[in-house]
Amino acid sequence: MFDKVLIANRGEIALRIHRACREMGIRTVAVHSTADSDAMHVRLADESVCIGPPASKDSYLNMAAIISAATITNADAIHPGVGFLSENAEFAEMIEEHGIAFVGPSPDHIRSMGDKIEAKRIAIALGLPVVPGSDGGLESDEDAHRIAEEIGYPVLVKAAAGGGGKGMKVADTPDDLQQTLEICRREAKANFGNDALYMEKFLRRPRHIEVQVLGDGRGNVVHFGERDCSLQRRHQKILEEAPSPALDQAGREAIGARVTNALAKINYLSVGTIEFLYEDEEFYFIEMNTRLQVEHPISEMICGVDLVREQLRIATGAPLSLTQEQIAYTGHAIECRINAENPRTFIPNPGKINEYHAPGGLGVRVDSTLYSGYTVPPHYDSLVSKLIVHGANRNECLLRLRRCLEEYVIEGIETTVPLHQELLSEPRFLDGDYDIHWLESWMAEGSDE
Ligand code: MV4
Fold first, then answer.
1. Considering 72, 198, 240, 380, which has the largest number of Cβ atoms within 10 A of its Cβ?
2. Active site residue 402
3. Distance in Å, CA 407 to ligand 1 centroid
């Protein structure tokens, strides 16, 4: 096992990774910007290195500074966490060139899944169901019009370099399409420096369901069931649950088997997530995330597996320690993302925490950077805490979640706790009857009253 791991991240995820390392007897190195000197991830780590000024591009995205920090502290591995450099193939390569282990997939897999046209091509080749569309890039406007006629309007034009909702636009008619192509091409060029586009049939009311996987790079791949991430606003997830209220055990095993068979063929290494849209009981691959995800704890809670621990083990070259048959699901888990934001406008609200009390008790997990007296800096993502609750079934989980949200005290800043409380009195949510658009329309309705 590694002796020392550098955690190239901040916030709750840096704490999460530190905790796995500590339990495995691995020493940790935190890196931080000058704005994060007082952050909890710095306080808990065995060592810390300041890697630059507040702006992410000069610190948490500064590859040379991070690799230097690993070298001077003698770290034998780097865990990239989520966001920042976690899906940067060049970073993974650079780390390996320095003789340091990268806790993540092979650079080739990161690179090919980062190109959404390439990712879809691979998904098709591996036998995963995809959304009907261009099955490759759009060669010309004529090509685009022909494919749109074939699959039928409305269509969605997406940028190869996009993902996570960036660089896509719907066209309802051939007239629309001409404009859409021009806008998408221009924006893709400006934002990503790559104007390659592809097209798909636009699914109107899908759910977003993703499957968690773990592979050892030797053809062994297991899955940990799915997460339903349909509750989102402007492509920011608000609350996730596992299992999905829309799937039964047979459905779960069927999609899980398709995913593990597919990824075994490419000897996938490390944790990863395959994202699907799910509509009328059909799955459609959209993207693959080649990293740990923010919402991974809900899968851990229902499976009883520490995914970061397994990810670290596998990064040493060890084979998988569990088989698919050993992964069983117990109960239901929900994660509420608690952001330092106004709960209605989502305008960030960083500042000093005057009073802090986290909920606890059976089935409760809080992955948070907050402490009394801490000042949430304004420079980064506003996620400050994840409240993760497990129950024997969905109803018990919801009752426990309501209790925990009442108990949670965060004073001094506005947070999204009240939004989660409101959601818990909403019949559509309580019934699990929602799609990717429901939360936004529900919030729009509320503001009219
Ligand atoms: C789609 C879609 C409908 N039809 N593709 C947005 C993020 C990116 N990962 C893919 N996205 C979508 N792709 C087709 N063919 C609707 C979305 C979408 C969405 C997907 C997942 C979660 C939230 C979303 C919000 C708006 C649109």
1. 240
2. no
3. 35
Q: pLDDT per residue over 238-270, tens digit each?
A: 999 999 999 999 999 999 999 999 999 999 999
Ligand 1 mutation target, pool 147, 151, 156, 201, most atoms within 8 A of CB: 156
Is the separation of the CB atoms in 19 and 30 below 8 Å?
no
Residue with tokens 């020493």: 27
Residue 204 C-alpha to ligand 1 middle, in angstroms? 9
Burial 12-41, CB ≥16 within 10 A → b, else e: bbbbbbbbbbeeeebbbbbbbbebbeebbb
Q: What ligand 1 atom has the least distance to the C-alpha of 166?
A: 7
* Beta strand pairing call for 4-7 and 27-33: parallel
Q: Is the pTM of this model over 0.90?
A: yes
Which residue's CA is the nearest one to ligand 1's atom 14? 202
Residue 293: CB partners within 8 Å, gap ≥ 6? Answer: 82, 210, 212, 273
306 in contact with ligand 1, CB cutoff 6 A? no
- CATH number of this structure's domain 4-103, picked from the four choices 3.20.20.70, 2.60.40.1180, 3.40.50.20, 3.60.21.10: 3.40.50.20
Distance 361 CA to ligand 1 centre (A): 36
pLDDT, tens only, 326-373 = 999 999 999 999 999 999 999 999 999 999 999 999 999 999 999 999
- CA–centroid distance, 102 to ligand 1, in Å, is 30
Nearest CA to ligand 1 atom 6: 165
The domain locations on the chain are 4-103, 132-201, 207-448
